[in-house]
Design a protein that fits this description.
Blueprint (H helix, E strand, L loop, with lengths): L4 H15 L8 H17 L6 H4 L4 H24 L4 H15 L2 H4 L10
Helix pairs in contact: 1-4, 2-4
């Protein structure tokens, strides 16, 4: 059976962390906080842009956005692993839950929160 992308990425991140003896700093609290810092860095690239500007980023800006997204992904898989969570299954379960909360026939083309449907 082949490893999934998430499993392979988790192993690579864990190796990276172990090689640097950073496990001691990677409590769930610290990882969650680091993830939010990276999310804030991502948002900075879009701050004050008009919607159409955010749809047409320069290649340099896209590269910077990709790096922030990668940081968020890395912290996400690290946090899930530290907590013993199956991130792939969690994502599948959440999509199933969201399909129930947001049935196509009620939400297609609308940005209404499920509590207001």
């Amino acid at each position: 059976m082949t490893k999934s992308f998430i499993s392979e990425l988790t192993a690579q991140v864990n190796d990276f962390v172990a090689e640097r003896d950073w496990e001691q700093f990677h409590s769930p609290k610290n990882l969650a906080m680091a993830m939010i810092v990276e999310a804030a860095e991502l948002v900075e690239h879009f701050q004050w842009l008009r919607p159409e500007e955010s749809d047409s980023l320069t290649n340099d800006k896209k590269k910077k956005v990709a790096e922030e997204l990668a940081d968020i992904l890395i912290y996400t898989v690290r946090l899930a692993d530290r907590l013993g969570l199956d991130l792939e299954q969690s994502a599948k379960d959440k999509l199933t839950k969201n399909r129930r909360k947001y049935p196509v026939e009620k939400v297609r083309g609308r940005a209404t929160k499920y509590t207001e449907l």
